[in-house]
Write a structure and sequence with these properties.
The complex is a heterodimer of chains A (about 110) and B (about 120). Chain A is mostly beta strands and about 110 residues long. Chain A has no helices and eleven strands. Classes of the chains: A mainly beta (about 110), B mainly beta (about 120).
């Protein structure tokens, strides 16, 4: 199985700050990598697919980058509604696997 | 707008079989190029893919659960179902059904772009 490791585990930032989360795959997954946002009590929501493509309707302050084994997800200017847990997910190989999640909080 | 809704018992006894159904509305489960999947999330923990299937009945399962899981489809009802046998407390989780995006780049199982609201299943006597 491909292991997906996210860090930091729980970044704390102020409104307006830039927040960056990393996701590392245990082997090369090219860019078969998606990012999701999950708010408490809700289902995950797709934000980024294929490492860097913004899903339709997702605000442009969200972005993704990377290829191979190392990926980043960024929020350019943190907003209060961005408080959530973010997950990466690879689909290069089965089984599909997710990162452990990164909870973004307001300082 | 495509919608998915999970249904089934919220409490299952240890060693019994967990059974959930996902009802799809606003679209057809028989649409070509889309797989339908189940994902679970233990309380306070991360996401785990259980398995996915195509409307033809072709299915893929997570190896860690494969011996206990069956995912099936009923196209006449626009539903697909999950059965997980011999459950233990570690199977307690919120179970989500979801639809994959279209097959792309040589992969049939890709992103998940439509999700049900999730249903909590507790395994306890």
């Amino acid at each position: 199985d491909i292991q997906m490791t996210q860090s930091p585990s729980s970044p704390s930032a102020s409104v307006g700050d830039r927040v960056t989360i990393t996701c590392q795959a245990s082997q090369d997954i090219t860019n078969y990598l998606n990012w999701y946002q999950q708010k408490p009590g809700k289902a995950p929501k797709l934000l980024i697919y294929d490492a860097s493509n913004l899903e339709t309707g997702v605000p442009s302050r969200f972005s993704g980058n990377g290829s191979g084994t190392d990926f980043t997800f960024s929020i350019s200017s943190l907003q209060p509604e961005d408080i959530a847990t973010y997950f990466c997910q690879q689909y290069d190989n089965l089984p599909l696997t997710f990162g452990g999640g990164t909870k973004v909080e307001i300082k | 707008q495509l919608q998915l809704q999970e249904s089934g018992p919220g409490l299952v006894k240890p060693s019994e079989t967990l059974s959930l159904t996902c009802t799809v509305s606003g679209g057809s489960i028989s649409s070509p190029n889309y797989f339908w999947g189940w994902i679970r999330q233990p309380p306070g923990k991360g996401l785990e893919w259980i398995g996915s299937l195509y409307y033809s009945g072709s299915a893929y399962y997570s190896p860690s659960l494969k011996s206990r899981v069956t995912i099936s489809v009923d196209t006449s009802k626009n539903q697909f179902s999950l059965r997980l046998s011999s459950v233990t407390a570690t199977d307690t989780a919120v179970y989500y059904c979801a639809r994959h995006g279209p097959a792309r780049r040589g992969r049939s199982l890709t992103l998940f772009n439509y999700w049900g609201q999730g249903t909590l299943v507790t395994v306890s006597s």
